[in-house]
Give the backbone structure.
Amino acid sequence: MKLRYLFSILKNHKNNNIMTQKIQKSLKESAPLRWLVMLLVSGLMFGTYWFQDFFSGLKPLMETQMGISSTEFGALISITTIANVFGMIIIGGIILDKWGIRVAGLLFGGLAVLGATIVALGSSGYFTDDPSGQMTYMMAGRIMFGSGLEVTCVVVTRTIVKWFKGYELALAMAINMGFGRLGSALGTALSVDIAGGIVSPAITFAATLIGIGLIMFVIYIFFDIKIDKQIKAESPDDEEKFKFSDLIKLATNKSFILIALLCVAFYSAVFPFMQYAPDLLVNKFNFTYDLPENAGFIIFESKTLGNAMIFIVLFIFGLSFSLIPSFIKKKVAKLLSVLIIFVLFVSFLYWAWDVLSIWMKNGPKTASLIPLGTILFTPIFGNFVDKKGKAATLMMLGALLLIFAHLTLSVFNNVILGYCGLLSLGIAFSLVPAAMWPSVAKIVAENRLGTAYASMFTVQNWGLLLFFWGIGKVLDLSNAKDLDAIRAGEMNYNYTTPILMLVVLGVISIFLAMALKKSDKAQGYGLELPSGVTPEDRDVSGNN
């Protein structure tokens, strides 16, 4: 009897272990749940990227209302990175690796919301009516926002790895980045519409979006608690505690150093440019800031909402080109689905062309081609990296497109080449991130990814601080003799010299991508291999 009772206990214990494993699989291997998680954490990406880039469409309005110069505008943008240059992101990454996604997300997401709120209150005259005083509060808020911004992005990226590693990691990262780029595109294109001739409403709206993103993250926390319990039940002693020696390991890893340097070179040639792109198009190609009354789409009697829907529909098409064919197994059906989506996409462009053709002569709307290109192409390239690999090669191709883009926008004065340059920059801005961020997850152990991504973002911010401010400074210096005439509306800014600086960064990016590919061959991380495939798997299968 006792033996039967003991056998029953052992059997129940075994069944419980099996059930635990099944629950683990049903939670982490559930595709709908993975994608729901991705949507929830993407809210913060969308809001923070909007707030990061929406000022680009407001530059002339801020010059008129607040009397700021290009250098002061550049200072307002660049100061966002100041705390991160001095290690705030690394501190955030350590907090992330030591105390987890929930603590880091709430702490730094809340910091971003608080900073954005101070910028909004400062611009509205809540603290002072003096324009110089308003700028002081806005800059203080941007510092606080920037301190939360980059760590929040690290938290979101780490969360995607947590749920998608071994599955559709590159695609999930690409779509998550697509939400961020959608925020950039909408912020750039719609900030003037939302402002309505006054700076503060556009800032208040942008700050509100980050608050909504933080609420979505709080909802995600319930899933994070649940999966952490499952992971702990399955392997309670596997996870090592953070050690400062981990920083030394990162700093001595050649492949990681190269990908971090590529990150700073590439993003320094893109993010700062996006802040000045609308103004460049207006000054170099005689685009406009203002649109005719009929140049928009109206939904619920709102032109701003109607215009936003155009970008959202384009984002949906971008997702459809990647997601729908990937869930279809038969080749004929897969090709047919792509053809149907393409026909619908062309039909949509034809329907909207009357308005889109007017947008293509407007600075802020045309500049949104940069993030718009990423909305369409990043999921496609992410899916390619998952299925085919070639991450280092794609980074090289992206760097080549970067050089072409900046040459067309600096040296040449042809509007058609300008359009090609903007589109090329959008494609490059899709290729490199879609290949870069999943590659880091191959180079660095998962429980150290917070520190790794944080280190990369820190180095990236050194470049951003220099070029956000540097483009504005060089712009003023290279136009010094004509500044009075420019501000009187008699002449335009000449952007040739500031943008040529960015061509050099593209050349550096190519050499770094080539060195990374060579280093990967030596260290064997498999950056050129599909997701979930290691060099060992390749060797076993006999494919060399």
Summary: The mean pLDDT is 80. The longest helix spans residues 88-123. Residues 291-361 form one domain.
